[in-house]
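Hi U.,

Before I forget, here's the chain from the pilot set. I'm dumping it here mostly so it's searchable later in email.
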Amino acid sequence: MSKGDVLYKNGDEPIFDNFAEPPGVYIREELEARGWSQRDLAFILGYSEQTITKVISGKSGVSAEMAKALGEAFGTSASVWAGLQKEWELREARDPDPSIKARAGLQTRYPIREMISRGWLEEAEQSVLEMQFTRFFEMADNDNVSFVAAARKTDERHSPEELAWLFRVRQLARAIAVPAYDADKLKAALSRLRALMVDAEDIRFVPEILAECGVRFVIVEKLHNCKIDGVCTWIGDEPAIGLTLRHNRLDNFWFVLIHEIEHVLQGHGKNGNEIIDSNLDDPFATSNLDAEVEAQEAVADDAAKNFPFPHDKLISFYRRKAPYVAEKDVIGFSSLNEVHPAIVVGQIQYLKGDYAWLRRWLVAVRQHILPTSVVDGFGTIAKASL
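Structure:
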């Protein structure tokens, strides 16, 4: 019985275990079993004798076309010869770099590639990369990144992208020098912040005002596959606010900012229980939250909605004017309440569910806030040490 015969042990499927020699060895044995010469095989297959010699000697491999021809000549499946060739090539191939498996393990859990491309980690050999990883996530080893509270989520913990973003905010915030946090100063500063809501350009003063109260302010562009708006996190007893500016709109900027400031004032998110706020513009995103988190979100939402003026005042205005709210009425209401029209337009868009309505009044904010803030993203890589 030839080697080709014993390749079949379980029906029609060839078995290649322990066949650690090139296909030419088995071709030679098939020739011996039949009393054929290499010249005979060349004649049968229609190949040159030189080609057959190279294959039998192991200098050339068995192509897919030749595997089919050998199957016809020897009465076997073409997969036998194709499989022998593949098995031999795998055995001869160099072992892969061990770091491939380790990098795959990290990438499966966290967006390592994107973190490297954003400049959060440096591309390096595996041990150095793992060391950076553990320092970035403030942990003893790379298996214990804690999951923090998931605001605007249903029954899921934070995604790896959200966690990476949070720890980048913490990394940058830690490097900002501010005086000790003073909650009373922050409460008093709300009136100064309120005065900035008339002119879009005035938001450039926000980081300075917060810093005077001991609140670190950071803008980190979101990673892919997430819809983060902001976070209130704590460096010990010192608060930090991180925003993504996911929606480049004045109305959204103020809503998210005041939402996070309220988290700070309420002391939410301390002791590693940060709430990453995602989808703040989705009225259904808080369904099925943990009761404590949902209560905290409700408090922050209420503060943000009522910050520029009582929300009931806007609702009353809208009901009196709906469904056809005139542009001149919006301008008049904005002027009366001393806010930029973009803020009123944004809130009414939300009420109407029509985000095209008076869209020309909306104002982009990045060009005003980025120059005075600690920024990572939007074409900038913030300098930070692990």
